[in-house]
Amino acid sequence: MANKVNQIKVDIANSQTALGIEFGSTRIKAVLIDSIHSPIASGSYAWENILQEGIWTYSLDDIWKGLQKSYQEMVTEVKGKYGITLQNVGSIGFSGMMHGYMAFNKDGKLLVPFRTWRNSITEQAEKKLTKFFNYNIPQRWSIAHLYQAILNEEEHVEDIDYLTTLAGYIHWKLTGKKVLGIGDASGMFPIDVEIKNYDIRMIHSFNDLISGKNYPWKLEGILPQVMLAGDEAGHLSEEGAKLLDVSGNLQFGIPLCPPEGDAGTGMVATNSVSERTGNVSAGTSVFAMIVLEKELKCVHPEIDLVTTPSGSLVAMVHANNCSSDINAWVKLFSEFSEVLGYEVNTDKLFEILFNQALEGDRDCGGLLSYGYYSGENITGMREGRPLFVRSPESNFNLANFMRVHLFSALGVLKIGMDILLNEEEIQIDKILGHGGLFKTEGVGQKVMASVMNAPVSVMETAGEGGAWGIALLASFMTKKEENESLEEYLNKKVYIDYAGVKVDVDEKDVEGFEVFIKRYKQGLTIQQAAIDSLNIKRERAEQLNEELHHSKHELKI
Predict the structure, then answer these.
(1) Are the C-beta atoms of residues 89 and 474 closer than 8 Å to each other?
(2) Where is the Carbohydrate kinase FGGY N-terminal domain (predicted)?
(3) How far is 332 from 151, CA to CA, in rounded Å?
């Protein structure tokens, strides 16, 4: 043990480290790794999006506060564990939630509040652009947000000088470079995987489409430069070092890898960047990433086409909602136990309730739920109305209650995956899971295996998530050998000694999910009726969001 600590001290002293910081939907996390890619210190900052005038957003103040707090917590751990004041690292990488809309003018001022992936406000643009390009353009994509702003005749559009993602914004402010990793860029605008850059034909077509507006910009002039894994994407500026480390100890000049999206870093953190591999991230949202062997046969509005950090084509099924409603119900059970005079550890409560779900009927006993806290594009819901529904004949017990919420958390994902597996006949050799839904051993994996109809593994490193993934990309940039691919680097130098726990497919669970998903689809009219009938005022929604943000009882998976 002493030798290991001493080696880590040597790595820190010699800057044989890499720092990854990821902006997730509920947590900003910083992870420092050593020369053998093992996490040696971390820090985090909890945050929540807010509903502001009907838009899901995060404030710029919270972005920078979270970055600085998570970094400082990591630095404090380095000092406590190794007795070293951190002044330098070998490389840095930033990642964040993909998609969304951050538009800036020539003075670097944010023109409208950050519009996140969670918004379902670009349906008109989505439909028009998908038809225009003959290529699926989801509502979350930056180009959909831009075109919707154009359709809405929003005044700020004329003043746009730069359009980027959250990770691209952080990278720009810390380096001065307007660049983006290809994986994150593929959630802004379609990528031509042959040239590893934006699709030139579509760029020109979009410029022609909006030419009548006479804006003073062309699309190619306001998008970030596309970069690949392994490229050097700039250096930490003197101003950037002070922004990141308010103590002033961190040196400037550190090289940075291209900023990436959380989907790309999830692929790296699960070693699923090769063809016929896939990973599933399940937390506030849920998305599956399958690396394809070839183009899809058809355009599917349920399937995004994005890329790995190296530029390989990936089919992505994304659902806006996953664990939020489960968290809310577990919070209710926690409050009930407190009223009875028992305080149950949060992790223990999740473990008990999740395992109870395994005792339920295979099809959830006729129960139905929708955990829609926000709109859901694949099922065509513009807003969120969490629902729980049952008939008098339903088998209403705790086991089925928990099981149906786990099933419904993956209902939208199931609809998309059925298209890939049944219509496109894609082949998957392995699926790796990460995210809060997999914290309780075996349960989330078992449910996910019934959705994927394939074994699902969770690695011991899955808990480190995308922050570790972007740290690996930063390390790859500085330590790769000549002509060494990202796949080779991960297989030979990172994942040799990492074991995973695999859960196989249970055919009876698959059959039960098929029965459930039929009920789920039929019940979507109920969900739509709730949206039409329950018109909650925005002021009340914002108040509830503020209460949630500050609640000391808030639970997350």
Answers:
(1) no
(2) 18-244
(3) 42
The architecture (CATH level 2) of 271-556 comes to: 2-Layer Sandwich (3.30)
Phi-psi region of 502 (alpha: psi -120 to 50; beta: other; left: phi over 0): beta
Distances (CA, A) of 539 to 117, 536, 544: 22, 8, 9
Q: In this structure, what token pair is assigned to residue 196?
A: 């590893």
pLDDT per residue as tens digits for the range 291-349:
999 999 999 989 999 999 999 999 999 899 999 999 999 999 999 999 999 989 999 99
Q: Are 339 and 428 in contact (CB under 8 A)?
A: no
Check the CA dihedral 297-303-306-312 and report its sign. Answer: negative
pTM of the model: 0.81
- Helix H or strand E segment including 501: strand 500-503
- Cβ within 8 Å of residue 13, ≥6 positions away: 84
Which tokens is 187 given? 């959630």
Residue showing tokens 């249970």: 506
What are the pLDDT digits (tens) for 149-203? 999 999 999 999 999 999 999 999 999 999 999 999 999 999 999 999 999 999 9
Rounded to whole angstroms, how far apart are CA atoms 405 and 407? 5
